[in-house]
TrEMBL record:
This is Tripartite tricarboxylate transporter permease. Keywords: Membrane, Transmembrane, Transmembrane helix. The lineage of its organism: Bacteria, Pseudomonadati, Pseudomonadota, Alphaproteobacteria, Hyphomicrobiales. It holds the Pfam family TctA. It comes from Roseibium salinum. Residues 13-439 form the DUF112 domain. The keyword Membrane applies.
Length: 497
């Protein structure tokens, strides 16, 4: 099938519609791009791979970008990745320049998205071609490196690593298949549940529970807040926007987009780190750092270019190595799984049309996001007034129906949704890290296969250190990530601790 045959009116409609729905999810505090992708994931089964990815990528781009609306108008980040947008966006709103701040953030979001898309297009195929040479040993070490990076960049390194390995442990529940080097017997299953867990927990109900139901439970615990009325939303219509505000900010935009893309390539780090790093760099290199936090447009540019730079960067490790860059791209693996496609080093070479369709979908999603938000921002600003007590029952219903139908009507998948929804809600209270957990859950079976196959082929643990120069480099990177995390944690210890 040629690319021109894929780009149909349905394909384009799904991108634009997904982008709009993503903006709605991102603009309502408590609802995120990850939640939008999780809720809509079951819908992709009947759409086919390319159309399904078009919908999900539109949701991804729209969800990340929509977070700037409440961040600027209410001082409440719509998504974690827009937290630094509040620092200068909300002060501008209080100064009567809300609409100007929104348009600055929208343009910066477009720049960040396009820069990261260009890096994705140029870098992912080269990395995938290099990764094709990897044997089981290097593949296992890549996963081990990803887990240590996730742990090192978590709030607490030990908890981050523990969360990742807990995900791996739960992913191993079920039959130890002979084709994977096992004995064909079931393992890690509590008595009485052998029938239900013979094949382990199904991936998609786990994802929907962790990112859909858990968020609803968290909001339900907080109660129903007083809704925002349209009269309280001050967009500052009299504020004038001009592209001249970007004069002298090209370096800031490109640097922030580059930081966001780089952070996205690191597994499990997330958009909040991208925006914080971009914002802090913009302030460091600014000639007027004292203006930051008081309504400085450069701060909004850095934050939004950084968090939208994440969108393309997070797809680089997913499409070239099979390792998701963040929790949202981890959900994209579910879409590939539904269509029977495995992502990894061979994906781009074996599926060139799908790869090109993803690039086109990302490009159109960024342009659609810009067009919808820039020209209709006064109307989109009213999204923040939509009451969540109306939205959440609808989303909960979609989660349950999606979990039930995804494997042709298995009731245990609904129980899986509830179990992991409760787990995701409790995990935050126990300070466990959800992103390392879910990436460990996804990569666990592959890590086991690569480890066992390596031992079957070479017969000794020493092969993990002596197989090739790539293995040596991977161990150096693993040690560096752990050492760096320890050094950073010691720098943050209070003097009187």
């Amino acid at each position: 099938m040629e690319l021109a045959e894929i780009i149909t009116p349905l394909f384009l409609s799904l991108i634009v519609g997904g982008t709009f729905v993503g903006i709605v999810f991102g603009a309502i505090p408590g609802m995120t791009a990850t939640m939008a992708v999780a809720v809509c994931l079951p819908l992709t089964y009947s759409l086919g791979l390319e159309n399904g990815l078009a919908l999900l990528l539109g949701l991804y781009v729209g969800g990340i970008s929509g977070g700037l609306v409440p961040a600027i108008l209410l001082g409440i980040p719509g998504t974690p990745s827009s937290i630094t947008t509040t620092f200068d966006g909300y002060p501008m709103t209080r100064q009567g320049e809300g609409e100007k701040a929104l348009r600055i953030g929208i343009v910066a979001s477009l720049v960040g998205g396009l820069v990261s898309l260009a890096i994705l297009y140029l870098f992912a195929p080269a990395l995938a071609e290099f990764a094709i040479r990897f044997s089981y040993v290097e593949k296992f070490l890549i996963i081990l490196f990803a887990l240590t990076v996730m742990g090192a960049l978590s709030n607490n390194m030990l908890i981050g690593i523990f969360s990742g390995f807990l995900g791996i442990f739960i992913s191993l529940i079920g039959t130890y298949d002979i084709s994977d080097g096992g004995n064909g017997e079931i393992r890690l299953i509590p008595p009485g549940l052998e029938y239900w867990l013979e094949s382990g927990f199904s991936l998609l109900p786990v994802l929907i529970g962790l990112f859909g139901l858990a968020a609803i439970l968290d909001e339900a615990e907080a109660g129903v807040p007083k809704g925002q009325s349209a009269e309280n939303i001050k967009t500052g219509r009299r504020s004038t926007f001009s592209f001249a505000v970007f004069r002298g900010q090209i370096v800031n935009l490109l640097r922030s987009a580059g930081i966001g893309t780089f952070v996205g390539i690191l597994p499990g780090v997330g958009g909040s780190a991208a925006s914080i790093l971009s914002y802090s760099n913009a302030r460091t290199f600014s000639r007027n750092p004292e203006r930051f936090g008081k309504g400085e447009p450069a701060g909004i540019m850095a934050s939004e270019a950084g968090n939208n730079g994440l969108t393309g960067g997070a797809l680089v490790p997913l499409l070239s190595l099979g390792i998701p860059g963040d929790s949202t791209t981890a959900l994209l693996i579910g879409a590939f799984t539904l269509q029977g496609i495995q992502v990894g080093p061979l994906f781009i070479g074996n599926n060139p049309v799908t790869w090109e369709a993803m690039i086109v979908a990302m490009l159109i999603a960024n342009l659609a996001m810009f067009a919808m938000m820039y020209f209709a921002i006064r109307y989109l600003a009213r999204i923040v007034t939509v009451p969540k007590h109306i939205l959440f029952p609808v989303i909960l219903m979609m989660c349950v129906i999606g979990a039930y139908t995804i494997n042709y009507g298995i009731m245990f998948d609904v129980w899986t949704l509830l179990i992991f929804g409760l787990f995701g809600w409790l995990a935050v209270k126990l300070r466990l890290e959800i992103a390392p957990f879910i990436i460990g859950f996804i990569l666990g079976p592959s890590a086991e296969i690569y480890f066992v196959k390596s031992l079957e082929s070479f017969g000794s643990l020493s092969i993990f250190f002596t197989k090739s120069w790539i293995a040596v480099v991977m161990w150096i990177l693993i040690a560096a990530s752990i050492a760096g995390s320890i050094a950073l944690s010691r720098r943050h210890v209070p003097p009187d601790a």
